[in-house]
């Protein structure tokens, strides 16, 4: 497609680099911005640059943060002896939204995936092991996705922390049928596991 | 949803102002940018600001342009006596892509639509009528979409230019069954019109 303005062309090119946005959507977005007040575009541009230059990683849990320590790690009323291991900061947001968890997190930044060239050294595993070695941690919760890569990562970390600390409690989040789901539509593996790992009926009354 | 960084929150807020992008997509885009090299974000931000501050409207046809006159209006090898009236600059691009049209354009910037509060004065109709009044235009092609608003706008402009110029030829783009389409799936109005406005068979051999 030919454009009558090289600035429009450049803007479309840059917008189309974003995931899930093609040239046509980029054109639509660029034309939309052209019709809006200039402040919207400058605000957007400033917010993007600020995002990239001012957002840091929490030095303790690798969650994103504006300060050295994120709000969760800095909060002394949370239980710092329980660490929930997640893949991504979106998982932190998802768990925080449930308002059920009062421990702290550790964001790995991905899963071990040899196919994508991601090994243990690319992930924030060393700092996790160091944190556990201090002896202040009593429980580690694995909350990675239940894919082959997730299981591999879980197992790798499990081996690492088992070697360093024997009295540590480890757990994974419960897998089972979603609340509100019909059994007949559930996949066999999930349904099978939900029967094997059944819980006392009294427990289901708690929440 | 709570965010651990106010810069992330601000970026998401600004991105989500774009049409068709919700908070979740905005979050995905923001996290994507965080993982990319900084140059991508600064390039994107610069391209957006350049788009807004440097792109002008062609003073003759209202197409977007980097200069006073757009490339099409400035091109003397094009036929300046034929004007194709379109709604939007995307329509200019679509027609230019066919490489079948050698006249110039006039971009209205919308359609008359009282429901959306768009009257003739909000559109670039006056400059079109002025251009036609110079007497240098021999044909006007209406290429608006065939909706009620498009038809209304066509008719309004038709009345305006009829009053000012009697020898002017007017035409609309041909409506009919798309090339490659099956007749049985075509809508009745299009199919009916394509029979009423049938063309000599020899014409269909030309292209």
TrEMBL record, chains A, B:
<dbReference type="Pfam" id="PF13662">
    <property type="entry name" value="Toprim_4"/>
</dbReference>
<dbReference type="InterPro" id="IPR000093">
    <property type="entry name" value="DNA_Rcmb_RecR"/>
</dbReference>
<comment type="similarity">
    <text>Belongs to the RecR family.</text>
</comment>
<dbReference type="Pfam" id="PF21176">
    <property type="entry name" value="RecR_HhH"/>
</dbReference>
<protein>
    <recommendedName>
        <fullName>Recombination protein RecR</fullName>
    </recommendedName>
</protein>
<dbReference type="GO" id="GO:0006281">
    <property type="term" value="P:DNA repair"/>
</dbReference>
<keyword id="KW-0227">DNA damage</keyword>
<dbReference type="InterPro" id="IPR006171">
    <property type="entry name" value="TOPRIM_dom"/>
</dbReference>
<keyword id="KW-0862">Zinc</keyword>
<keyword id="KW-0234">DNA repair</keyword>
<comment type="function">
    <text>May play a role in DNA repair. It seems to be involved in an RecBC-independent recombinational process of DNA repair. It may act with RecF and RecO.</text>
</comment>
<dbReference type="InterPro" id="IPR015967">
    <property type="entry name" value="Rcmb_RecR_Znf"/>
</dbReference>
<feature type="zinc finger region" description="C4-type">
    <location>
        <begin position="58"/>
        <end position="73"/>
    </location>
</feature>
<feature type="domain" description="Toprim">
    <location>
        <begin position="81"/>
        <end position="178"/>
    </location>
</feature>
<dbReference type="InterPro" id="IPR023627">
    <property type="entry name" value="Rcmb_RecR"/>
</dbReference>
<dbReference type="GO" id="GO:0006310">
    <property type="term" value="P:DNA recombination"/>
</dbReference>
<dbReference type="Pfam" id="PF02132">
    <property type="entry name" value="RecR_ZnF"/>
</dbReference>
<dbReference type="InterPro" id="IPR034137">
    <property type="entry name" value="TOPRIM_RecR"/>
</dbReference>
<keyword id="KW-0479">Metal-binding</keyword>
<dbReference type="GO" id="GO:0003677">
    <property type="term" value="F:DNA binding"/>
</dbReference>
<dbReference type="GO" id="GO:0008270">
    <property type="term" value="F:zinc ion binding"/>
</dbReference>
<keyword id="KW-0863">Zinc-finger</keyword>
<dbReference type="Pfam" id="PF21175">
    <property type="entry name" value="RecR_C"/>
</dbReference>
<keyword id="KW-0233">DNA recombination</keyword>
